[in-house]
Every structure is written in C-alpha cells, then in structure tokens.
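Entry:
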Amino acid sequence: MNLENRIKDAVKPYIGLPIALSGGIDSGLLAALLKPKFAISVELPEGKHNEIEKAKLVARYLNLEHVIVQLDENKFDESVEIAVKAIGRPIPHFNIFPLFEMYKKLNEIGIKEIVLGDGPDETMCG
C-alpha cells in the first residue's frame, strides 16, 4: 500500500469532524484531508505563538466555517485551576489555557469530538 492510500485510510474515521485549526502545517493538512464540519481556532495574545491570521487563511481557502475563540486573560487563573483539577495534575505547558477555553466553547455548542493537530507533547507534556 502506498503512502497516499495509507493516509486516506487513516483519516477515514475522522472525515467530517470539526478540527482545531492552529494555522500550522499539521492542522492545515488535516483540515484539507478531513473536510471538517467546521474549524475552531484560539486567538492567542500577540507573540510568536499567535498563528490566527494563518488559520484564517487556511479556513478561507478551504471554505470552512471558522469559529474563533478570544482569550480573556483575566480568566487565566480560574481556567487553569479548573483544567488542572479536571486533568488531575499540573500541566506545565502554555497550551493548557487556550485548549481549556476552546473545549469550553465546543461544549457550549454541543460538540463532543474534535480533531487536533497537537500531539502528546502539547496536551500532556510528552
């Protein structure tokens, strides 16, 4: 089986699911392959990790509905405390706050499954 067919087989169970779109290569490629119901992105505070403009370009190019979560930095302590309690241990990675806020938004709109381009390093510190 060639690589293209392996990729097509691997993504079949996820076709149509919403996708977390960061604007990076991983999530952009997944969005192109999966034809998601919609994309969701978190706009990070300005800095090297904010790829929101790239995420917007990818969503527009793929003609995807694009939900953008705005972070309220005043809720950082509260959100991280809740997230750490839910996970059961501290997660020393900056993604805990934006991921938690994204999951809250998904819960509000009734979404229970999503495809992420993040690996365990981002979500569980390796």
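The radius of gyration is 15 Å.
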